[in-house]
Amino acid sequence: MTLYGETQPPADDRPTVKVTAVRWPDDEPEPPAAAAPGGSPGRPSRRLRILLAAGVTTVVLGAVAGVGVYAYAGDVPRGTSVLGTELGGRSRTDAIRDLHTELGRAGTLTAPLRVTVGERTVEVKPADVGLTMDVEATVDAAARTPAHPVSRLVGSRTVAPVVTVDDARLDAALRKAAGDQIREWTVPAIIFTGTTPKPVRPKFGRALDPQRSAQAVRDGWLTGQPVTVPLVETQPATTDEEVSRLVAELARPAVAAPVTLRTPKGSVTIPPAAIAWSLRFTADDSGKLTPRIDVKRLRSALGDKLGAIEVEPRDARMTVTGGKPTPVDGRAGQQLDATALSRDLLAVLPRTDDRTVTGQLKETQPEVTTAKLAGLGIKERVSRFTTHFTGGLSSPRSQNIVQVAKEVDGTVVLPGETFSLNGHTGERGYDQGYQDAPVILDGKLVPGVGGGVSQFTTTLFNATYYAGLEDVEHKPHSYWFSRYPAVIESTIFWPNLDFRFRNNTTHGVLIDTSHTASSVTVSIWSTKIYDSVKTEYGPRRGVTSPKTIHLDAGPSCIPSNGIDGFTQDAFRIIKKDGKVLKREKFTWRYLAEPRYICGG
Description:
Strand content: 25-35%
Shape: extended
Structural class: alpha+beta
Number of strands: 36
Distance between the termini: 135 Å
Largest sheet: 4 strands, antiparallel
Radius of gyration: 44 Å
Transmembrane segments: 50-73
Helix content: 25-40%
Keywords: Membrane, Transmembrane, Transmembrane helix
Domain YoaR-like putative peptidoglycan binding: 250-357
Pfam families: PG_binding_4, VanW
Region (Disordered): 1-44
Number of helices: 14
C-alpha cells in the first residue's frame, strides 16, 4: 500500500490502493513520546491508525454492499408474506405465480363464506357475488413497502390481500338471506276520509347498508372466521311529533270552513270537501312530509264552478280529409295561475278567519300547435286493421265499440311518448256513455259496463303492431275468439289491464278511427320507415277440449258453445331495405272455454 508522504517499502505484487490522508479528531501535533520499555511506543503511531481506519472502512463498505444486495434481491422485500405464503426475495412474476399456486392448492378462493345477517347465518359462494382476490394488486402492494434497506432486511411483515366484490350482487344475496328481518320504514302521511284527516305514523325500518356490507365481507373473507354484516335502523325524516303538528296546525283547520276564491271574472267558494281532495301531503325519498295544493285535483273537485271563469286551451289536432292528414288550429285559454293559487291557498288554510285568496288569470297556450303538428312527418298511412262485429249499431256492445273509437280518434302520439288506452279514456262507466254488454269475469261471460271495448283494443293493437311500433303492455284474452287473430290480440279492464304502445320513431303518429254497422277500423298515419311488417305463426300445441258446465238460469247467465284451448307462437317480422330488421316472438296459452248451459 502506498501512502503519500511516507518512505516506500519494497515493491510487491499486491494491488496499490490510494488513500487520502485524513485528520482524526485528536490528531494534533504533540511532542515525541518516550519509548516504552522494550522499545515500543506508548500509543499507536499515526501511520498505524490510518491503516486501521482504512481497513475498517473497507470492511464496512463491503458489508453494507453485501447487505444491500441481500435486502434488495427480488421485487418483494425479505420477510414478506401474504395469507401465510412467503413471498420475500421473489420477483413480481414469481410472487404472483407462487401465490396463485398456494391459493389454488388450499382452495382458499372457492370455499364458501359463512355470513351472519342479523339472526341468520348463511353460506355464500364467492363466485355468486363476484368475491375474488386481486393477486396482481396484492403483490404490487407487497412490493411497494418498506423502502429502507434495514426495514427490508430485519423482521417480517404480513400484507393484507386486495379483495374485490360485486356490491349489487352481494346486496341481493344478503337481502335474500335476511328475509323478513329487513323491513321498509312506514312512510308518514296524512290522508283524508271525507273531510277527516287521518295520520299515518312513521315507523322505523331495518335495512342493509350495501357499502358497509361489502366492506365487512372484503375485510373478513380470508380471515377464516365467519363475517357479520350489520343491519341498520332506518327512519323517515319526518317524526311522529311532526306528523301530529301538521294535523293540528294545518290538516284540521284546512277543512274547518270554506275558502273564497276571488277572480276578475267573479268569486268561487271552495268547500271543505274540495280542499280535502286537493290538499296533499307528499313524502320524498328521505321520508320528509311536505304539504301542497294539487291544482289539477282542485279543478276536478270544483267542476263546473270554474267553467264561467276559466277557458281551457285546446290543442291543435289532425284530421284526415280527402285521404290526407291536415292540421286543425287549436286555441289559447285563460286559466288561474296554478303556482300562485297553490301558494296562496296553502297560506290561508291554517287560519280560522279571513279565508280569502285572490286568483289571477293568465293566458294559457295549447301544448300542441299546428306548426308543431306540421313538422311531425304525419303524411301517409302506414298501417290499417279492421275487425267485425254482429248485432248492428243498435246493440249495447256495438255502441261501446263506437264510443271508445270516437274518444281515441284524432289522437297524436309524439315521438318517444307512450300511449295508454286506460289513461286516455279514463274509467269507462255509464256517465261516460258506456252500456252493459258481455265481459269475461272469473272465466265466464257476464254482463258488465263497457263490454266490447276489448274488440277495439285488439283492433288498435294490431294497427300499431303492423305499423312496427313498440309494444309496451298488452294481454290476450283467456279464451280465443275466432273474430280475433290468435295471439296477436288484447283485452282491457279498468284499471288493472291496459294496452300501451310507444312511438319509437322520430315522427308523429296519428290514430284515425272509423266504423260501419258491422266493423271498426283503426289506421295509423305517420312516415313509413319499414318495407313490411308481417306475422308468421307456429303450429298450435297442447290442445285441450272444453268441459260442460251448467249454470243457474237468469239474466246474468250467458250461454256459450265452448272453445278449444291451445298454445301458439306468433313472430312479428319487420323488414327494411330488403332485410329482416327484427324478428319478435309472441306466445300465449289459451284456456279451453267451457260450454256453459243455462239451467237444466
